[in-house]
Amino acid sequence: MSILRWDPMEDLYSLRRGMSRLVEESPLSSGVPRVLRSEDRELRLPLDAYATSEEIVITAAVPGLGPDDVEVTLEADTLTIRGEFRAPLQNVDYLFQERAYGRFRRSVTINVPIEADRAEAKFDKGILTIILPKAAEARPKHIEVRSE
């Protein structure tokens, strides 16, 4: 059996060295924020969605893209939006770079029956709007109340 001498300060120094390495390798270490991105990763496209009695509407900001740059598919009950934000300029030194770039993809499950053949997608000032009309059986039904 052997006895090891434990130095609690060495644990603190080790922790400090690890934290220093973490800070040195962070995207802010040069004082200039960089976009955290790898070539294998897809960005998660932020969406807004709301429902009316007639339809489900989904919107997404896709600045700089046009109708040919975005793919919208509806398969069974899953809506998927795919595209790619173009890479920034390569021959400049950015003072800061906050906009993400690269491939994006977002899938959402639509939990209401819809009329897929009447679905439409439009662009207006960098906003993609997808309109999914609800199927007749999913729309609210007015029930007349009568007295007897």
Topology:
Elements: H1 8-24, E1 48-51, E2 55-61, E3 70-75, E4 78-85, E5 102-109, E6 120-124, E7 127-133
Antiparallel strand pairs: 1-2, 2-7, 3-4, 4-5, 6-7
User: What are the secondary-structure elements, in order, as H or E?
Assistant: HEEEEEEE
Low-confidence stretches: none
User: For this structure, what is the CATH class of one domain?
Assistant: Mainly Beta
What percentage of residues falls in helices of 4 or more residues? 10-25%
Distance between the termini: 94 Å
What does this protein structure show overall?
The protein is mostly beta strands and 148 residues long. The chain has a domain of 91 residues: Immunoglobulin-like, CATH 2.60.40.790. Helices cover 11% and strands 30% of the residues. It contains 1 helix and 7 strands; from the N terminus they run αβββββββ. Strands 1-2-7-6 form a 4-stranded antiparallel sheet, with no helix packed on it. A hairpin with a 3-residue loop joins strand 1 and strand 2. The radius of gyration is 26 Å and the shape is elongated. 8% of the residues are buried. The mean pLDDT is 84.
Summarize the structure.
With 148 residues, the chain is mainly beta. Helix content is 11%, strand content 30%.
List keywords for this structure.
148 residues; mainly beta; Immunoglobulin-like; 4-stranded antiparallel beta sheet; 3-stranded antiparallel beta sheet; 1 helix; 7 strands; 11% helix; elongated
